[in-house]
Amino acid sequence: xxxxxxxxxxxxxxxxxxxxxxxxxxxxxxxxxxxxxxxxxxxxxxxxxxxxxxxxxxxxxxxxxxxxxxxxxxxxxxxxxxxxxxxxxxxxxx
Length: 94
What we know:
By secondary structure, this protein is mainly beta. It has one helix at 68-71; strands at residues 15-19, 24-27, 37-41, 47-50, 63-65.
């Protein structure tokens, strides 16, 4: 892997992590308090990531990062004319 990996679609710098399920996840390289992914480096130097929960909150060696798919400008394409995003109109349960 290169020293500064980039997103294949928008070419911004990303940090590739390995999730608890063994999958690769790209996160933005700088910590973000609005993020929902805990990132840390394990003893072998591998960047790891997980979702903090109420049972397993953020620990002292983890930092919150934003997953790159949520901020990637190439993925934020406008919808075609006449198509609406249903998530914008869904009701949330109280």
